[in-house]
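Sanity check

After download, print the first record. It should look like this:
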Amino acid sequence: MPRAARVAQVVVDAIPTLYACALVAYDGTAYHGFQYQVGVPTIQGTLEEALQRFAEPVSRVVGAGRTDAGVHASGQVVAVRVRWRHSLESLLQAWNAHLPADISVRGLVQVPEGFHPRFSAVARTYRYWVYVDGTPATLPRPRRSPLTDRYALFEPRPLDVDRMNQAAALLRGQHDFATFGQPTQGDSTVRRVDQAEWQVVETNLTPLDPFPGQHLVFTVTANGFLRQMVRALVGALLEVGRGRWSLEMLESALQARDRSQAPPPASPAGLVLERVHYPPGLAPFDGGDGSVPGGARPA
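Expected structure tokens:
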């Protein structure tokens, strides 16, 4: 090896390798999901491309959740090993400077080698947003809401929220969710749902819209999710709220363990990965906003 090349290699080797964990938010509308795919924009691919423009990553960016195409996140957790001689703050600022406007690194911390964003997690929380149109029944009803369609499912008629919560209660606990999701090859379809609840989003603002709508949110926490499981569950719960499904029909579909028994999954637009949960002492972001000792967050 020529002397100049040896010197360059020594300089590179002198740069410490940082195992960094980032809290990431994104609007998934323009992306084909989190996981890298050749020839199409993905969250993982965009994070890696941005990092390569100013640093030297020595591993892939690994995420806690493989969100589907069109799904959003406010609390995705990713980790990457990167050669970096400067501060965490400068790494965070540089990364954000090279990312598009629909992806943001909200916080950054250094984590121990034993940490894995996906396999160290013990649970995940998703929220699904629904906008119920307020147009009176005496008028023709619209089919969309330009101000909410990007982040919520548009529902043209009122829903029975109490009935939907009764249905959601049937999902809590440990069940075989084969009807409502697709496992990775060889994986079990049994999951434990700790939280499943619909809420009406209240506001103190005086309504100025002549036909004010209603915002609903479904919060679900489980020790793991099958592919499209949240959207499939929401699709079934909405059928209950519309009066098309009874509680008995939902319970029967759950027990059938048959994918064909589920209604179509709800649109990805309303789904947000809100939080990834880790065991005490291993959670990189205690408050979910990057505010941890030794961490960095945007100024």
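If your output differs, re-run the checksum step. Summary of this record's structure: Confidence is low (pLDDT under 50) at residues 3-11, 288-293.
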